Amino acid sequence: MKWIIAILIFSLLIIVHEYGHFLVARLNGVDVEEFSIGFGPRLLSTVSGGVRYSLKALPFGGSCRMRSALEEMEGDMSLPDSIPEGTFESVSYGRRAAILFAGPFFNFLLAFVCAIIVIGVVGYDPAEVLAVAENSPAAEAGLKKGDVITGFMGGHVDIGRDVDTWFVLHDLTKETTVTMTVRRNGETKKLSFRPLVTDRYMLGMTYMPDENAAVIEAVQASSPLAKAGIKANDIITAINGNAMKSGNELASYMKEHPLTEDPVTLTIKRGEEAFATEVTPVLNESVTLGASVNLGRVRTTPIRVVGYSFVEIRYWIGTVLKSLGGMFTGRFTVNDLSGPVGVVDVVGTTYENTKSEGALMTWMNMLNLIILLSANLGVMNLLPIPGIDGGRLLGILISVIRGRPMDVKVEGTIQLVTATLLLALMVYVCYHDIITMLAR
Q1: CA distances from 116 to 133, 158, 208, 308, 313 (A)
Q2: CA dist 103 → 17, 357, 379 (Å)
Q3: CB within 8 A of 86, min separation 6: which ones?
Q4: Dihedral over Cα of 40, 421, 348, 120: its sign
Q5: 407-422 pLDDT, tens per residue?
Q6: What is the CA angle 37-435-376, rounded to 5?
Q7: Is this structure's pTM higher than 0.85?
């Protein structure tokens, strides 16, 4: 079942993207020859209104193939007046750009609609300070419980995840000076302080302290949990025989029973399998903010639901771009990328891990994944890489600046080379996804 749902969600993202191209192409008088879901040989096919609609064997993509003068004229476009009507090249640069941009835009639109549903049902995550450690640098600087963070480390903050994501993309060290802006009783205050440095016993994991199951989001390399074979997406259901029904219960237990050098027994759920394992914490020097920031959801008014839906899309677009930046700084590597196989696996695993929480929460999690993946697909397709929408948009911009079209042979060669490199990257990423799945 999980694979069916995963493939349906992935197919939805592709259909919406390609329909954006299809709709705007038809509105601008460009003929569409084939609208297909999937790659490879056709499984089903029908022709309607001059368009062939196809379902193909490999459900990991799709296409909206428009009529092209480059193909019909075999690359000879020296006489613009002779370009056949109905081809992509027969319309103005502005219309071509609109057609290309429509695919990513429809992905952003899908993400926005899903965000309205999710925020309307479960709310948004205000960046409210939930607690401040006593006698910590944060407390001495004046940070208080109930403060709402509006700025953090030079960046604007709308939701709690803005702060949380900073820690994913950056390392907090003893030398870091934390800067933030908070709103308190209608007043804005600017604070700066050093992180809280403490020695504490740790297992080496991150999880979300919310009402959902205590899912391990990440396991630190070489940590006690990693050595015990615990993996990301495993669910902690009990500690030392004490049942843990949610991330909040796990956080409360850890606060009331700080880890020591003594081993702890964790009960883990992995898919349909459940097992217990003994893990011995290790002593680490911990560098933290010295305060906890809300990541739970609260309901809000209908008008603010719409506003925070825009915030949600802004958050995911920004997160994707910052993560791509991390590829260039070395924080992330190509092994951190996921291809279609990995995406389908994540969707399926999330469904399996959350279906026990009931239909409502399961579909809220599915919609959250659609928001993330659809925004991701929109951003990735707008990157200025030849062969995809962003690269073609860049080509149009260059043609406008030059006052004449790019050389067809040069453009074709660039696209062929880039497409080959992208295909090689996709094959590697899919191979890595499969190896990772088999290793679980």
Answers
A1: 35, 16, 22, 8, 10
A2: 4, 34, 11
A3: 29, 30, 31, 67
A4: negative
A5: 666 766 776 777 777 7
A6: 45
A7: no
